[in-house]
Amino acid sequence: MRTSIRNAAVAATAVSLALLATACGGGESGDKGKDAGKGSAAPSASATSEAPAAKALSDAELEKLIVEKADLKGYQVQKAEAGDVVPASEVVTEKPGCAPIAHAMSFISPGSPVASAERQVLAEPKKDATADPEDALLGALGVEMSAVVLGSYDGQGAQEALASVKKAGADCAGGFTVSHKSEKNKVLKVVPESFTAGEEAASFTITSDLEGETLISKLVVLRQGNTLASFSTVSFGPGGVKAFPKAVIDAQVKKLG
Question: Signal as a keyword (predicted)?
Fold first, then answer.
């Protein structure tokens, strides 16, 4: 039984890392907007009439604003590797309207950002010198990992992108399939949640099927001015992610001001 749990956990890790970094994810730096806007919803009347026009920040400016290790106690923070960041056009959903959710689940800012920055944030596992190797492995797999992405937009782009995420969450509640190259992952359910952050936010609990294993993850996309911050959090421990990564989100909102 312990071996089957370990094997399932390792298998889930191998497959769902694609969910975190490529297959329900992937992204591209700088020119994401060329592809990421596909499947986006039109902005709401309030978004187009109330929010002032804005000029996007640059990649360099976002790099100064994205959360770092010094901002978070008990977490490791690292830049996304080049292999983790892929063009939005390589992440394809069977239902085009679900693309904003698939993109927001990892290293793609939804909509048409002018600039972006990405980080991987991992909660530091609690050390137990008495744990045997299998228990240590399962403990490490239970660590929460968040893909944090900042995207900056011109004009009403941030409002439009967040509106597209909200619409996708409603339209794709029954699930969808997302493909990255030869890999496919199945999102079974998207459930809207109430999580308040930034000037406005969309949040979801997402259930995925990864080679027969169920993965429960959390997704938050918030807007602060003309910047969107996306947080896709996964854990391979029993029950998956049980709560939104409030410490990570609060630290990022604080830096955005």
Answer: yes
Nearest to 204 by CA among 235, 229, 169: 169
The amino acid that residue 158 corresponds to is A
Alpha helices in the chain (DSSP H): 2-21, 33-36, 45-50, 59-65, 99-104, 133-141, 157-171, 246-256
Q: Edge-to-edge strand order for the sheet containing 200-210?
A: 75-79, 115-123, 145-152, 227-234, 213-224, 200-210, 183-193, 176-180, 91-93
pLDDT at 78: 93
Residue range 1-17, pLDDT digits in tens: 333 334 333 333 333 34
What is the structure's pLDDT at 236?
Answer: 85
pTM (2 d.p.): 0.77
- Name the DSSP letter for residue 198: S
Length of the chain: 257
The arithmetic mean of pLDDT across residues 117-127, rounded, is 86
**3-class DSSP state of 179:** strand
- What is the distance between the alpha carbons of residues 212 and 16, in angstroms, rounded to a whole number? 12
What DSSP string describes 126-153? PP-TT--HHHHHHHHHTS-EEEEEEEE-
Phi, psi of 138 (to 5 degrees): -65, -35
The amino acid sitting at 110 is: P
**In the structure encoding, which two tokens stand for residue 16, read together?**
């769902």
